[in-house]
Every structure is written in C-alpha cells, then in structure tokens.
## 1
Amino acid sequence: MTCHVVPKERAGVVNPIFTCQPAGAQFASIGVKDCIGIVHGGQGCVMFVRLLISQHLKESFEIASSSLHEDGAVFGALNRVEEAVDVLLSRYPHVKVVPIITTCSTEVIGDDVDGVITKLEEGLLAEKFAGREVHLLAMHQPSFVGSMISGYDLAVRDFVKKFAEKGEPSEKITLITGWVNPGDVKELKHLLKEMEIEANVLFEIESFDSPLLPSKDNVNHGNTTVEDLRNTANAKATFVLNRYEGGKAADFLKKKHKVPSVIGPTPIGIRNTDTFLKQLSDVTGKPIPKKLVHERGVALDAIADISHMFLAEKKVAIYGAPDLVIGLAEFCLDLEMRPKLLLLGDDNSKYVEDPRIKALQENVDHEMEIVTNADFWELEDRIKNKGLELDLILGHSKGRFISIDYGIPMVRVGFPTYDRAGLYRYPVVGYNGAAWLAEQMANTLFQDMENKKNKEWVLNVW
Amino acid sequence: MPYHEFEASKCIPERKQHAVIKGPGEDLSHALPKGYLNTIPGSISERGCAYCGAKHVIGTPMKDVIHISHGPVGCTYDTWQTKRYISDNNNFQLKYTFATDVKEKHIVFGAEPLLKKNIHEAFDAFPEIKRMTIYQTCATALIGDDIDAIAQEVMEERPDVDIFVCNSPGFAGPSQSGGHHKINIAWINQKVGTVEPEITSDYVINYVGEYNIQGDQEVMLDFFNRMGIQVLSTFTGNGSYDGLRAMHRAHLNVLECARSAEYICDELRARYGIPRLDIDGFGFEPLSGSLRKIGLFFGIEDRAEAIIAEETAKWKPQLDWYKERLKGKRVCLWPGGSKLWHWAHVIEEEMGLKVVSVYTKFGHQGDMEKGISRCSEGALAIDDPNELEGLEAIEMLKPDVIFTGKRPGEVAKKAGVPYLNAHGYHNGPYKGYEGWVRFARDIYNAIYSPMHQLSNLDISKDEIPTDNGFLTRKMLSDATLPPEVVNDPILKQYDGKLDPIPDLRAKTYPVFPKKEPAPVAAE
Ligand code: SF4
Ligand code: SF4
C-alpha cells in the first residue's frame, strides 16, 4: 500500500480551490480592532473578496480600495493611496491601523508603497492627523505568488513585525489560530480558559458571529488590539496552530524577539487536541484540568459508537487549506476511515517536506494520493475518468458541484462554506470540534444511505 | 433639486454632487447627480471592476463555452459561483471556470506559451465543448500578452474550435460598466456575422441584455415562442456562442438591460440596419406594453394580446393580494445599474410600494435621469454610494425593506431592515407575470417576517407580549386591513410552484407556418 505525493501536471487551473494572496491579507485585516485595510489595485480585488467573506460569515465589515483606474495603471497610482488614506481616516475617526495591501497590478507597475507610507507619515499624518494614533503598514501581496493561504501567512507576519515590541516579559502566550471560523476561536479560548492560560489571540474574530440587536448596533469588527500585537514580543511562547497560516510570524518573533515557538499540530481530532493541551501545559506549567478530561470523555463517548461501527473504511477525499486537510486526514485515520485523496491547492514547495505528510507516506495502509498545486479537476477527473470511488468528500463550498453531480455526500468544512447555514459558528478544533465533525460525517452518510436506499436505511439504529 | 450632503461625506466635498433629493414638482433641469466618474479612493464604494463587468456579468452567462481568464487565479475564483445565471445545458458555465494561473516567472518572461498550453488542456479536458472565451485581467494586460495572436494560432491548429478574446482588464474604467462596453464591442467586431443561421420563422429577434437570473430568460422565451417568434440568440443569459455569432440575421433587437448591452444593439443598427426595441420584462404593464410593441412591429398584435389576456387573468388577482398588503411600505431600491429605473415606477404602481431612495453603483447619468423621473417626490438618489452613506440613508429614511446586494444586505439586516437580493433574487425568476408575483411574494415575506418583528423587541425593557405562541405573516399584514379586502373572494396568495423552470423546459409550442422566405437584412 502506498501514498504518493504528486504535483498537478497540467499548467492551467480548472475550478480553483484557492483564491489569490490579497484575499488572505484581507481576511487577516478584519481580525484587528480599529483596522480598515486599503487594497491597492482594481476594485474587483476587494469587492469580490468582501462578498466572498460576507457570504461565508453572513456578516458585513469594511475593507477599502484605492480604486486603480486606467491612468494609474499607466502612470503609477501612489497618489490614489495617498488620497485613500486621507479619505478613510477623515471618515472613520476610530481607525488606527491601515494596512496597504498590494495586488498583482500594483506589484507589476512597481508602485513604491513603502515609500509612500513614509511620505504619508511625515506629511499627512504629522500635519492633518497630528495627535491621532495611526499606523500604516505595507503588505506586499503579489497575486502571482502563492495563494490566499500564503497571503494570510504574510499578513500575520506583517502585523506582528509592525507592532511587536520588547517590554516586560509576560505570562501570556500568543495564539495564532490560522484561517479559522468564529466558532473555532471560541472553542480555542474555551480550552485556554479551562487551562487558566491568558493569550494574545491572533485574531479575535469570535465577534463575527454577531447578534441582531434591538439597539440596531451594526458594526462588526475583529477584536485583536494593537496592544495584543505589541505583546507578542513578550509572550512565553508563540503557538501556531496552522503551520502555513502563521508560521512566518512565529519565525519572525523567534528570530527578532527570541520568543520560542510551538508549531502545530492543528488541533483537529482528539489526538491532536491532546497534543495541543500537552504543549500548552509544558510551556506554562499549568496542569490539564479534570474539566477537560470530562469534556474529552463526552466527545469520545459520542465518537466511539460511530467510528468502528460505521465510519470505518469509508473512503474520503479532502481538499482545501493544507493544515486543515492534513488535520482532517489524521482525524479520519483515527476514525478508521480511508482518506484516499488529499488536494492541496497551491504550489508551496514545502508541503512535501511536512513531517505530517511524511508520516502519512510511511504509515497509511491503503492506496492514497496527495496532489499539490491541485485544482478541482484533479478530483473530478479521477472520479469521472479514472475510477476513483468515494463515500464522502470533505471541503469547502466551491467544490459543491462535484458532490452534487456525482452523488457523493459532502461535509462542508473550511472556507468558504456559503451554501450551508451557520457553519462559521461551529468549531472543528478541540474536543467539541472532534465530536461535531464525526457526527456531521456520520449524519451526512446516513442521509445519503436513505436517499439512495442503501442497505442501512432500512433500520438505522444503534 | 437640492444636492444632498451626507454628514459622513462632508470631508469629501466632491461627493456632494453625487446625491440629490427630488423636490416637489421638480424635473431634471435643476440637478442630476454626477455619474460614472472615477471612484474616490478609500471611500469604501461598492463598485467592481471592468473585468467583472465583462466576464462575470456578460461573458459567463453564455452557456456552451469554456470561459478562461488569463491571469493569476484570484480573479477567476472570485467571480465563480456568485451569480445565479442558470442555463438549460446543466449549467456548464456556472460549474466550470478556468484560469491560466500566471505566476511570477510568467510576469517576468511573458505568459503567452502558458496561455497556449492552457487552451489546449481545457479543450482536451472537455472534448464536447468547442467554443472558448478568453478574458484578460490586470496582470496580463500590464505585461502586454498578445492574447488575440495566441487564440488565432490555436484556431489554426484546431479547426473545429472557435475562440473569442475579451481585453477588459480590471482597471479599464471607473466600474464594471467599462467592461460591459468593451465586451459588447469586442463581440460584434470579432464574432457577429461568422455563422449563418437557419431561419425558421417570419419573425426573428435577438434578445439582448438578459442574463437568465434564476430563469428570467426562459420565462421570456416562453412568450416569444408562444408568439411564433424565432429567437436567434440571447445576449447572453442561457445564450449559445454560435447563436450569438448569427446576430446579424435578426429582424429586430429586443433590448432589456440597456445599461449593459445597448452598445451592441446600437452597433447592430449601424452596421446591419437592425432596429432596436427597448422592452421590459419586469411588471405587468411594462411587460404587456413590451409584448404589444413586439407584436405591433411584426403585425402579430393578436398573438401578443392573447398572451396578455391569459396571463393577466391568471396572475393579476395574486399580484393584487400582495399590493393590498404592501401599500405604502417604504423601499430603498439599491441595485447595481439599470434596475433602478426598471423597477422604480412599476413597484409603486403595481405593488403600492413607496420608493424612498434609489442608488446605482455603476449606472451612468442617463440611468439616474430615468430613475429619478420615475420615482416620487422626496426620494433620495445616490450615485456610487458608499458604506457610511448607505447607513446614514437607512437611519434617515427608515425603510421597510431594501433591495440590494448580499453584503450591503447584511448591513441593512443589522439596522433592523430586511433585504432582498436585487442581483441574484431570492425565489425568482422575477420576470414575466408569474415572476412579478413571485417578487411581490418575496417582498411580502421579508416585510412581514415574524422573525424580523421579534428582532425589534428588547426583552430587558419592553413589554413582552405573552398572548401568542406564534404569529403568521397574515396575522401581521391583515391586522389593519378593512374586512372587505381581507375577505375579497377574488384576491389570492401566490399558488405557483417552488421552481417553475422545469415545466417551462418541458413545454411544447404550436407551429406557426412560415409565410415567405426570410427577408435578408441589409448588410
Ligand atoms: S489575481 Fe490580481 S486582479 Fe485578480 S483578484 Fe487577485 S489581485 Fe486582484
Ligand atoms: S441588470 Fe444590473 S446587474 Fe444586471 S447587467 Fe444590467 S446593469 Fe448589470
């Protein structure tokens, strides 16, 4: 039995799994309090990304554009950045943090965004906005490099780089969650609370599961403060849950501020959550409390039934963000399932060296393939033309038509999940996430059996 | 007509000329908001780009085509699966999108070989599809790839395929509207006249500026089929590539969305002498008037009248049921472009709603002019609105419902106002007689949603009503209606199917024998 890692052979992309870098920076930017990013490029790069994130979270939030038009594309568009900063600060008096996020067009033109920031700091900020706390920072996000995942990774690093400042050592840790849902952040904070550990959380996006109130309070913002970002330099350790969505920031903090880092694993499933808690305990000296023993037991009690009796040997394809895909694959293996195909949607050459992928290659006891730089055609082509048989697909909404057209049940997980209600609210991490995921998979398969009148629909009881 | 200055925009004086309030007895000679100017950077406008105007709005609704974007993967991903332009070929154009995946090395050394490889790969992966459109994006426009030349090469190598090239990078113009124009002109220049259609009727049209949102085009096609009219092509919803190459053989261009597609009609008139007839599929009266005009043009008024009579008899009592319950409800009509004038007047007339504001993201001054002239006094008209202005307008106008896009809709929701998706619809289609009732039904469902009503209650200080275990929409909407309306034996609630499209697709039509050989349009 073998597990191969292969890159996509075709040059082009048929149905992309990922979007481009600036989308990652935009998602990171909405996690910071009093922050509105300006995307320096054409308006589409913002308008559609805002739409996408808002379809996923079912919320609105603000991101601005420098609105590059033809003249700017020819003669350079730094004047548009200057004007955008002025307009934005004038109209949003609470805004303190303004990342300037470049795109493919403004990187090709070669606009000197760092230069214009210096100019603005010495001119506009010193004069018109004297006395106001404003931080401008450049985020270089050429979209012809990497993907939304690397864009997020770079953006976290750029935030940390801008603000991290050595001061008194603190008992806090820094938790870089990676590109997750409000429900995940809530669950992670719950675990920290039970462990009595305080953290600078990058990013506090729990607030995006926001209420509809009689007061008509309508502002949605992330809540990671400049103070939190500053303190990352003084934390006991940086915990990066998703290696590819925060690893660069941890490296920076280690090199520059000597903050030790703990990279992964993504706490998906019981085992990886155990590891996460153990690492937290090692770093902070805090014991794992009985309460979490209980919580773990509740999750296991729910999962134990369905795994060996039902989920065992079900064949799964998983696509999306690399840390999520690997974490899900690991959990599926613990559930006795067979991840047959993993699709990692960009050309990051580091994936092949990832120890978790190496471990899969050494240990899985069924035929398995991992495709890097993948698109959805890698999945569909195998099903349509190459005889790949699957019982289940795990991934985000953009792959929905494969599930629909080939009649393969699918559990939505990752980003975006716009075609299902409320998924942003539920965690996939921690013990609660493990139980939720296992039950979602089981229920989805049950439903499918009933629809297709497969053997077990006759009497599904245990 | 006084310009309206938003508090939030006092610091950007040029915005002042982008909003007006229609005063009593005023016409348009006083003032008109400025339109289609460069966007003010940092204002958090809702505009998109010219690539999306070309590819997403007009290009991709074409159904039997590989739609490939030449650039990094983002533009493609972002404009994929966000709009409900369905088709009767299993939605190929919705399901599949293609990107050449331009990387750094291509930016440095050029991406033409990459493009060529991509084209071949795409045709190989989908051997049954023989048509392709290629869209330029910001990056490939800036590095100067010659897409036309590559397309030509491939067409020589693969004689059974045909490729259309659309050079409309994101930065080409203030909004998506620039892209509408570019793709209109590119299509007529490259493709119209390259296929000769079989003419099967005495009455031959192109249906232009219609994107088949949730089946709108198929609803309208039903009327044309019932009138014995041959629809050579639809530009572009549910339209086929080769049908659109034959546009030059129509006797009449029937134009729906003038904002996005009048350019090609005007060119077809100039080059082939085909007249343009502006029609409107939204609303009973506008639609009846449109069918009459088409009937009149071809001398088949009787066929139009038969449809109008049948449909009106069937659906008018249902429309009126809603009208009674929507009377006086305040609407912000905030779509993208032309719907502001398609809808402004007719929702007031036929549904009893009151339009308190119109806005357009990418319309031109002409759209505003039509929009304002069709809405009533006191309405606030905004060009290229932004986030803060929208909120301020909601606070000022206190609408009961807002017709807008998904994300601004979330803003409205938090302000306690339900929204209806003006671009993709909720339970459409909204065109046709039945569609118009469906629209009224969706508005009613939004305004009288018991859940929205509950969201206004502050349980910490308001009196909590404890006498009901539930409330229906009807309990809310009928509470203040006179009994003769409530008990009217003719009026009734919508009773159509959840999805009317499958029935339409299964329908057969009477054959109207052709009288004479097809007249040849002037070249
Ligand atoms: S690929 Fe470039 S133009 Fe397209 S969305 Fe990404 S940054 Fe914008
Ligand atoms: S109806 Fe509106 S969104 Fe649709 S094409 Fe016309 S202007 Fe664009």
## 2
Amino acid sequence: MDVCKTITEKFPCRKKIVKELINLISYDEEMFPNAIHIHGHTGTGKTTIIKHLLKESVRRNNENVFNVAFVNCVESYSSRILFENIAETLCSENAEEVKVENLKDFVERLRQLKTEDTRYIIALDNAERLRDMEANVLPSILRLQELSGLNLCVILITQLPLEKFYCKTSIDEPIIVYFPQYTKSETLKILSADFKNAQNLLISQLQRNKTENLEQKIDVINTVSRDFFNNYLNLFLGVFYKACRDLSELKITARKCFTYYMTPILEGNVDMSDVSRLWRCVAGQLRTALMQVYIRNGQPKSGAELNDKDSVKIAQSLELPYYGKYLLIAAFIASYNSSKEDKRLFVKNHGKRRKRMQAVNAKAKVAEKMSTYIGPKSFSVDRLLAIFYAILEEKVGLTCNLLSQISTLVNLKLLSFVSGENSMDGTSRLQCTVGLEFIVCISQVVGFNVRQYLCDFN
Amino acid sequence: MDSTISVSKGCFVFKGAAEGKKGGAIKRKLKDDNATNLQTQISKQPFYSTYTDTWRSLEIHIDQLQSQSYTKTLEDVVQYVENECIVGNTDTYDMEEIVPAAALLTGVNQPDHLEQFATLTQRILEKMSASVCMLQSRDCSTLKSAVETMVYNFIECAQERPPQSDLEDEDTEKRERKRLRRTQCNMRQLVHWYRRKYIKPYHNKDNEDDGVDDEEEHSPHAKQRTKRSHALVVILPDFECFNTTILQDLILILSAYYAHLPFVLIFGVATSVSAVHNALPYHVTSKVKLCVFKTQTAPVCLNEILERVILSPKYAFHLSGKAFKFLTHIFLYYDFSIHGFIQGYKYCLMEHFFQGNAYALCSNYTASLNQIKNLSHEDVECIRRLLSFRPYVESINDCKRIIAILTDDNYLKKKLPQLLRDCHIHFMLLRIFLEFLTVLTGDLPKCPLGKQRRELYSFCLSKELRDQPEFKECWQMLSFMSKDEFVSKVSKAISVTEDFLHSEIVDLELAEDCMTTVNEKLQALKDLLTKVVMSGMDEKSPTNSTAAPSTPATPEANKQKFTSRQDLKEHLLQMSKQHNKPSSEYAQSVAQTLLYIQNEIIIKYMAPLTRSPPLHELFVYSDVSTVRRHIIGAPRAALHMALNNPHYYLQCKCCQLSESNQLLATLPDLSVAYKLHLECGRMINLFDWLQAFRSVVDDIDNEQEQVDPQIQARFTRAVAELQFLGYIKMSKRKTDHATRLTW
Ligand SMILES: Nc1ncnc2c1ncn2[C@@H]1O[C@H](COP(=O)(O)OP(=O)(O)OP(=O)(O)O)[C@@H](O)[C@H]1O
Ligand SMILES: [Mg+2]
C-alpha cells in the first residue's frame, strides 16, 4: 500500500477514502467497477486528491498497463471536445490529430484500443456538466466499460449527489464515494501540514521586499517550531472557523496572516514565547482579514481600503458624466414610480383634486406595498428621456452623445435591458438595477433631491 | 484648394491629410485620383504645413503626458504579473487551481481604455516573456467563441512576432499556420502549442532547439521556473460587458488548465471591485486571486492634459472661452472620453487653419515671421478683414498711414511682426497671470470663479472679469480675510507664478519681454504686501530690527534681505502673526493691494477677447457653432430638418419654403408624408393620410373616388420609408391605422 501512504502523507485525514479508492481501482486481476461517483462539498480535496492518486498510480505502473485521462468538463462546450480530450490522452499515438465526431466514433475508437491487460481510467471533473450535453452522453459514459469492451472505469467528480444525475433514460448505479467536510481538528491537522510552505512564503516575501537584516530574520524564521505554528493555527482557527469552512480559503488566509503574526517577532519587539502578547498584536489584523475572507484580495501591500461593499462608497467612487448621473436618476425614478404618477410629479399644473385623491389612495396603501421595496419595474426609453428632460433644469439637445450614455449605463450594468435589446428605439424597455441608497448618493453629488420625485416619499 | 471651398454645408473628407496614420493596404490602392489630387493640392499650402506641425507637437506632448500618468499603475500591474509567474513566491503556492488576476479600475469610459490596455500589453511584452491576448466581450457571446478567440489570439500573435526564428523554427510555424483554423482552436491546441514552444523537455527531439534556455543558471529551481517562464496574459478590457455565465465558465477553464498553462487574468473594471464580486459567485472567485489597481480617473487626466498641453504657453493656437467650454462640457457632461476631447480639439485646429493661408501665421514667433513674406495679396486682404483690424486702423491718427495700411500690402507686412509680437506676448501674459489668479481665487469658499484653471480661463476670455458678480464676490471674500490668510495667499500666488515663469516660460521665445513685465508687477505687489504686513505695526516699538517703520525704504530693505521666496514668505507670516490687530490701516492696505491686482493685472492682462490686441483672431478659434454642428451628432434634429425642409440639404430651386410647415407638391414624397404625419395625433388613419397626401401631390382637381394607383404606390412607399426610419409603426389594435412613435 505504498500509494496510499504517499498520498495520505501529502493529504492528511483522507486515509479511509484513499484506501477505498485504491481498492476499487487497484491493479489486481479483477475487472474495474463500471463507474465511480465522487461527490462532496467544495474544497474537500476531490480534484486534488484524485489527480494525485491517479498520477501516483500511473507512476508506479507502466503506462501501457495503466492509462489515465483526467478531463475537466467545464471546457466541453460540445461533447466533441470532451471525447477528443479523452481520446487524446488514452490513445497516445500522434496525439494532436485526434478527430472524434460523436459518441459513436468515440466508442469505436476505444474499441480499437483493445489490448489484453491494459486498464483505463477516465476521470471527469465537474461532471455535473455532462447533464447539459446531449441526452445520450451521460448514460453512455456510465456504461462505457460495456460499450467499449475495455477494462475501463469512469470516475465522476462533482459537488452534486447522484440523485441529481437521474434522467429519463435510467442510468446504471455507480459506486458512490463521499468526501465529507473536514472537522475542526482535521482542518487544523491539514493546515499544520502546510507549515513548510508558510515558512517559505515568509522568507520569499522578505527577500522580495529587500528588508534589512535579512540573514538574521531568515535565521529566526528557520528556528520557528511546528508547535509554535500549531499554536498560531489554534488562534487563527478560533477566529476564522466560525466564518469560513472552506479549506483553500483558510489555507491562503492562514499563510497570509502568519506573516502578520511573525512581524513583531522579526522586528524584535516581542519574544517568540510570549503568546499572549503576540495575540494582542495580531488580533486586530486577524479581524480585518476576517472581513476580507472570501474576497481574495491578493493585495501586495495589505491595503484595507478596498472593502467597498456598501453602496455608498461605490457611488462615491463611481465617476459618471453629469448627464449620465441624471439619466441614472431618471431611470431610477421611472423604475420605482408607476407611469400613472408621472403627470402629477412632473407637470407643474396638475389638478389639485387629483392630488387629494392620490393622497387618499396612498394612505390606503400598506407599507409593504412601497414600490422601492418591491423592486424595479421596467420602463421605455421614451419615458426615461421624458423624465430626464423633466428633472433636468437646463435644455439639452437629444444628441448621439446623450443617447450613447444610455448604452454606457447598460454596459456598466447600472441599467439592464428587459426587451428590445437588439434594436434600441423609443419602445425598448429598460430597468434600473441600482438601489435607493446609491441613487441618493449620486443625486447628492449633483445637488438633486430624488425623494421629492418618488411616490413612496410623497 | 479652391475646389473644396463651396457654399454648401457639406463636409469634406481629406483622406490621409488630417491624420498621418497609414490606412490599410487595400485602402491605399483604392484611393482614387481625385483624392490624391486634392491631397497634394492641400498639403502644399502653407497653412497645412503649419497645421501639421502644430498638431504633431501637440500630439506628441499629449501622448507623453498620458503615458507618464499611466506609468505608475502599469508598472505596478506588470510587477504583479511578473511576480505571479515565479513559482514559490506567492501565497497560493502548490494550489494549482488558483489563477492570479488583477482588476484594473479604469473609470467609466470604456472605448478609451483600449489604448490604455494596448500600452499595458506593450509594457508586459517588454518586461517579460509572455503572450498577451486581449479578449473583448463582443468576441465572447458564447463560451465556444470565447475560447476559440482566446486560443487563436495567443497562437496567432506569437506568430506575428517570431522570436529570433531559426529555419527549423519557421518550418514549425508554417505547419502551424497551415493547420490553424479558428474552429479548431480549443484549449488542447493551446496546450500543445505551449508545450512545443516553451517547454522543451516535454517535446519530441526535432523541435527542441528553438528558443533560448538561459534560465538554468538562475536558481536551483530552474526546472520549475522554466516551466512557468512564459506567461499567458488574458486581458478582459470591458469586464462589465461580459455575460457572467460565460465569464464564469471561462475562468473555471483557465483555472483547470492553470497547472499546465500559467495564465494571468487582467480585468478592466469600469465601476468598482464589487462588479467583480457581483459577476462571479463564490465557486468561481475561489479559483482566482484578485489584486486591485487603480488608475487616474478621467477628469483628472483631462485636467492634466488641459493644464499641461492645451493651456501651455508653448502653443500659439488658442481656443476662445466658449469653444473651450464647449469641448470640456462634452467631456464632463456627456462621455468622459479623453479621446473624444482630443479629437474635438483637433477638429477645431483643422477648422482654424483651414480658414486660409493667413492662418499660417499662427505658430511660434520666428516661424510666423518667416511666413510673412509668403503671404499673397489675398491673404493680406484676409487679415484686413479680421474684426480686430478695424479698431487698430481707427487707432492710427495719421491719414497717410491709414491709407498705406489699407492698400499697401508691403507696408502692412512690415507692420505685422510688431502686431504678431504683441499678440504672442498678450497670450503669454494671460497664461502667466492665469496661474496667479487661480491660486488667488481657486480655493475660496464655494469657488465663485471656479476651482480649475480651465474654468477661470474660459471665464476671463469670454467676459470682462471685473464686471462679473462672481469676481466681485471673490474680491469681497479676499478683502475680508484675516491678515495671515491674505498674506499667505498672495505670497503663495506670487511664488506659484514665479515657479511657472521658471518652469514653463523661460525657454520660450519672447520670454524676456514677458518676464520683465511680470517681474515688475510681482515686485510692486510684493511691496504692497509688505505694507499690508506692516500695517498696524507702527504703534509697536520698533524692536523688530529688520522691519523698520513703514518708510519707502522698507520694501527695498526687505527685498535685499530675503534672497529666497520661502524666506520672505515665512518672515511675512511671522510678522503678521505678531501683529494680528485688525486696523483700518490694514484694511486700507489690503484694499490697495487688491485694487492694484485688479487694475494692473486683471484689467491689463486678463482681457476678454473683445479687448485683445489686433489680429488675435489669427491665434484664437472661436467658431463654436461650426464645431458643434460637426462634432455633435444630432440625428433626430438632422432628420427632422431633412424631412421638414429638404431644401436645407438639397439646395434645389424647387423646394424653397417660405415657412417651415408649408407643403409643396415638389417636395419629395417622403417629406410630404412626414409633414402630414406631424399634424396627426397618436393614431393616424391611413386613408385620411392618403387623401391628404393626394391633395398635396396631385394638383389636378379630382373629386373622383378612385385614387391614381401611381400616387397610391408613392404613398405606400413613403409610409414604408417612414416606418423604416422609425417614425411610425403599423398598429395592431386598430386596422388601417399607424401609430406615431415620436413626440
Ligand atoms: N486532505 C487535504 N490535505 C491537504 N490539502 C487539502 C486536503 N484536502 C484539500 N486540500 C486542499 O484544498 C484545496 C481545494 O481542494 P480541491 O480543489 O481539490 O477541492 P474540490 O473538492 O475539488 O473543490 P471543488 O468542488 O470546488 O472543485 C486544494 O488546494 C487542496 O490542496
Ligand atoms: Mg474540483
């Protein structure tokens, strides 16, 4: 069981599953299972472990005896590419010329490979994409052993359980292997195995920044013990494990935060044994890092400024031409008012009586009917322009430049087309995608009061 | 040239004349004789050569400036890309699925950014071994086309620049070229291509020796590093325009292949980083590592261009206040397009010089002196017709000289150098004192005169500054300032102006004359300022040895003592702090200073165009309406004009209208139908319309029911054309009715 050992050394906490897999695809005389369905949540190591396992198995066997194709189905926008990708790795002779038109060709090709004792494995990552291909692909892939007459096993790797793969033409039940999520202690163990990498990262960072006393600092880093690192990880997971279970996210953040943790030590401010002080030093930075977890800011300098989740900041940082801003405001008004109200809002001499009626109606409305909560309604380009001209005090011509602003806003995803996208004219319908807060902010910049024109606030 | 000067409002295309860019080879072949003729005719004219010179130097200047301002960010990005390609150097080491990505926040105008990304591409190629592929959203309507375009671009652009190719190398290239069809491009091809080209050990022996393996000596990780040494950079210049599902799949693909192909993604994001997070769900963002870079925003860039290039005292060409404002208005209010602004500016430049050879004088001083002798009689007449020429003539009180100047070309030519010189100096002084005034008024509360130089510039070119309420407001605020503030402000204005003199003016022609004038004024101002400082100081004991009681000699003494401006400023500040008592004397001296600035600087040198020296029209372009007509597309207005009054464009004799809603039988059918439809409501009854149409078109009096089929056909056609133009659409609700689509 050498393979098992090498793999589990690299990837701790997966011993049971690796053993199971090796049993399934081990190299004794039995036939392979027809298919294996591997599923589990993201970051549980499906892709990585299977890849390494297969690579290792190939390495230990002769390639003529053990042949592996690892293909990611995302790329396969047509089944043809999927087949060609598989065929290419399996039929190694003059690899570039592979041409496989369809399933029939593919099976035919596999049949030609027929040799006595070669074993084939086809691993398909993101296998859920197979469902989007022609209806015959998934069932046939699962019966490929039978169809090709080879000693062949298909491994489906996906995040979805098998139930999600059932389709009209029934499929053969594959063997199911589940990758469970790691527990906290397992996570700790895995992260702790990453010790050397974190160390190296720290060193290379120091080298890149050309810090002074480089030699000395590297010496310090090299004296860091595994226990010390585990200690750090305990602190780290204490903060992060509640918010994030994703292993790769944790791994990256742990590496990054380790540099923060080490900084006071490298600068000679804190002793390595003084854990509580170290904790005090790093706590703040861990908390900011926690805010940024999942955002993946590979910021070279640890700039904390770009956490612009809230829309006010975005609105402030967004520079739009003046009329662009007004168009956006007009679009917002058009989206959140019904067109019946337009006359009352924008025409100066609307009848008083109507207004009172409106007021009564508005009172009758329940708060949950507030249209700003309901979400944007669509409006026509004509209406947008009409409102634009109504809210803009100055007179501007209806020029190309102005009209092209509309498509700019669409490009920026601030507006979106509901219909008539391909030939924009006065009747094409649009929708405003930004929120009230954002618009209020924009309109403050141009000195305009939106609320005045929103039915909800009148 | 005459052949193009026409009464009609057509616009003339000067092929290749305006821009020195080379057209495609095919275009060049197709160029007909006429155009070439025209071109040679024009390019021989003196005004044309002045124009090209001016434009070239402007263009170079702008390019320089822009590349400078991009440099910092671009360097950062390149640095990042470079770093990511060295294995073991980053926090995602041994995680083979995480693609490094840089988000470049570019600001809203997307078409402009392509240039920026082209520069970035160049920089990356200069700095490191990499292939760069610019993937635009229009190429990515499906995942298939996205991948195909990307792969194709990578393979293709590597072929365009064969890296020191050997003979064998070319062989492989040829084989590649033959085989490569777009539909065959897929990731597998890319992997093969990459292996063949950049990873030697993987490949069969026969192609092994192309390229250079110089990486070996660098590090013990040589193997690893060679593997990753050639980066594949994918640039998505318009991130927001991408279909998100396609983008997600594309990123997943890149991530899946990252183990084999070292991709680096660069997103051009127009809005903010959150656009990236909105477009990509977690399972995709977890496959990229994002790093955010900011570039200068477009308004800042524009300001830089305006202040450093367009308003630079180096160039003789100026825009009038209105024209200047018009161009900046388009920029700020409509599109934020720097490119558009520059093109608009260039258009003004062309229009200006195209007015005639007299305008060849609009260049720097010596060049214009050389031009004088080339002036023909007509050109001189053209000068005489300039608006500002008349006041000049009137100001001469010698009859003989007046006659000479009006009739004798040579006499006028002799006079020209002096006149031109005055103009040059006028504009230079204007620019210099613009600097002064900007500092003085730019940061007042609410900025009545505007914060930027550009605002102030267009303001004082178009209006008499002194009479404007905004100006008075500014002056009032200045006079209410505390002593500290006032003194520091004015001395800062002085020092900024002096800096400007030293950095921008010194190397120019006529600098001497300007400098003497300016220095004189500034000196007088300094003296006045000293008085301000001294005011209210008298009652104090004269312990301040340096600042003796305010005698006329004091300023002199001060001037000698303080060699550097910094010294003087500090000293003044210090002194004013010591004596902070507001006194009437202080107010008086402030008023005096302000009055001096107003009378001696603003009225004298910052005159509006109406008071500018004679012949300033040669240097200033002010025809806003022409520019507006030509660079602002108003399709709706143009169509309305064309249909409502065809005569405007056709210039035919038959369609002249006495009033705009007149209907003539001679008008084109489409026009008649259009004008009739204008009179209708939302719904148009086709039969009524036809009848009205017939009554206009068919002059024979016909009460008979039957409509002439010919007329009916004409009507049908006109209606179809109106529908095509988008004015009407056939109603589905009511038969035989059309709906109007315009209001
Ligand atoms: N047991 C383990 N030991 C060490 N590292 C692990 C282990 N399990 C997962 N990892 C690491 O976690 C990261 C994510 O793993 P991987 O990409 O294989 O997950 P996945 O299940 O394929 O996720 P997805 O479903 O999103 O594709 C990898 O960098 C891998 O090295
Ligand atoms: Mg995976």
